[in-house]
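Consider this pair:
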Amino acid sequence: MAILDEKGLSGLVKLFLDLVFIGGIGILISLPVTLRWCFDHIRLEGENYYFALGLLYLTGIMCLVILFEMKRIFKALNKRDPFIIGNVKSLNRISLMSYLISVCYLIKIVLYNSFLTIIIAMVFIIAGLFCTILAEVFRQAVIVKEENDLTI
């Protein structure tokens, strides 16, 4: 099985990202109802419904942006053209969204701390750092590719 192809592994991952993106939109739409159900049926010590709703909407939208940018990257991968400036910009947007999500959860740590909140904040800080470094690697690869394309 091919790796970089519509019918290969990257095509399968893009299909999965499409499904997760659609599911994420559904979750955001149903968030007030599902969160109210959670607050009514699960004991959440000291949590504020409106704070949680705002936090989940804000970070949920940022996660959808991350998924959208990942779909763009995989679209370029499926065309076998990964080293383009668009992928660098997408990776930079993913890193920015990751940093913003981590800031949101760092604020939540101060107001309503939990072990899971600390883990989420750490994961998104690491994801942001990883995407920042990967964006720079891709940027340098784009420069080398463009220089190579100009060489006769």
Notes: The chain has one domain: 9-150.
